[in-house]
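Quick start: what a row looks like.
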Amino acid sequence: MKRQDDFEKRREHLKNLTDEQIYEKFWALAGEIVQPMLDLGYKNTTPAVERSVLLRMGFSSIEVKPIVDGVIKKGLMGKGCGNVVWRLAEKKGISVREAGLLLADGKEWDTVDTLFGGGR
């Protein structure tokens, strides 16, 4: 079976472009391909990602679980767990660590509701 070569036909729209124009076109098309993935990354998260964020904020894995669970229960995953902790710390005038520990102990979730308008 012989492959039908249609290279000349497919390159018709490119043949009069300079190297610089082809370079620009390549990066524009690459941007179009990648943009949906970037949008997903900015707009979506997972419990694993949020646990990772909190761990990098200095919380232990034992402290992180109830915070992530509480954020999920409140419907605030789109806001980000680290953001929830940080905003509570700002509101209460306490450290991020103290705010996270309060949430891990099941406290101040009503305050979190007021920060984000109820979450849902």
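That is the whole record. The chain is about 70% helix and 0% strand. The two ends are 59 Å apart (CA to CA).
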